[in-house]
Hints:
single chain, 11 helices, 33% helix
Amino acid sequence: MPTFSAPDGTRLAYRAHGDGPPVVCVPGGPxxxxxxxxxxxxxxxxxxxxxxxxxxGRSAIPDDVSSYRCDRLVDxxxxxxxxxxxxxxxxxxxxxxxxxxxxxxxxxxxxxGGLALIGPSVRAVGxxxxxxxxxxxxxxxxxxxxxxxxxAALEALVAGTGTTGTxxxxxxxxxxxTGAGTATGAGAGAGGDREAIAPFLxxxxxxxxxxxxxxxxxxxxxxVARFGADGAFDPEATRAALAAFGAPVLLLTGEFDLNSxxxxxxxxxxxFPDASFxxxxxxxxxxxxDDADRFVATVADFLG
Length: 304
């Protein structure tokens, strides 16, 4: 696995799949980037450079744990661009990783050729995902056999009475960021509310989804907890920068995505002067798993 050095000397690792022009991918979480896989086969069209954020996967734990903060991670993306020898790069972020991607785009707009935001989190731009938006997405699944207990857990979270925990890249009903799964922690016992709502994150709650959910748990709770610490986000400045962002942008979310409901992603798209907004039918928070062909066709067409 190739590595490079971050500005503070932390050794960071990344995975490279496929051939062709590169696209740098920022995972959610922070969590091991394995949950992204090859993004449903995107590597057949582009060389995907998938970063393990500091303290996750095979990247080293930093000496300064405050560097887990979202805004500090922007420097790691810039160091990777420099390591790859790219004057400009296409950038793809998923879930919580979209916060890092848009902060990078706001700070280095001339170094981004195209920006793809998949299942976007809205924290970096200060938008609100309401409980009603989440219920709207959840009620599309009302005929699923797992729906009654999952919806009850969602209602408890929206009402603020459920347990809390952390996972990888998912921005749950309580607004805590977590990615590939909804692990328990920070006050949540096994089988807690966040586990109960996991089926809402997938277009099909089958054996493959259960494996993906189980394998996607983060192993660095401190990295997750510090990601959104005070100072991590500056929504007003970020929105002002994105309003002048000249590169094309894709915002793609799943029809069933409880984490990034279509209405919130549509509002997000309006912040850019040149944005395409796509809702993938039948997909949850991991659209490359639910319909790989459709996902790859959309993203590869956007990236050219």
